[in-house]
Amino acid sequence: MSNINGVNTWQSLDEEIARMTTALCKLKRTRNRLVPVNRLPKEILELVFWHTHATDVYTYSDPLPWSLINISLVSTDWRTTVLAFKPVWGLLDLAYTPSAISRMLRLSGGSPLSLDGVISTDVDTSRSAGLVLANASRLRSVSLHFDDFSLSA
Known about the structure:
There is one protein chain. By secondary structure, this protein is α/β, with parallel strands linked by helices. Helix content is 51%, strand content 16%. It is built from 6 helices and 6 strands. Strand 4 (113-118), helix 6 and strand 5 form a beta-alpha-beta unit. It is elongated.
């Protein structure tokens, strides 16, 4: 640490804090990898992510895929796994914002798509539907609901 007349400078202290913060983050990441759930094989995690998100899509209508967002916040390893798991990003809901749909389409790569949603005259719903329809060749299942009845294909 550099100092002036034996006194640490503000900058040298900030540099030391930054170094220690980085070291602490690395230690926490290493510790987190020791937790049993973080030692599950990637394929098992993917199944958990799939079922968590699929249940979310078919039971709630939120503007964002919260189940996937929350999963990605658990740990670095979970974030890496869920972001790389292309099929889960193909489970789409018309309630999602157009920006969420667009990002999910990118993350899904070429995976098949499944669409669920309520048909409405909402501008965002129309834009989201347009984004999905641009990828119609990838659609494998569609479940659209209208006020008191639903159409499924």
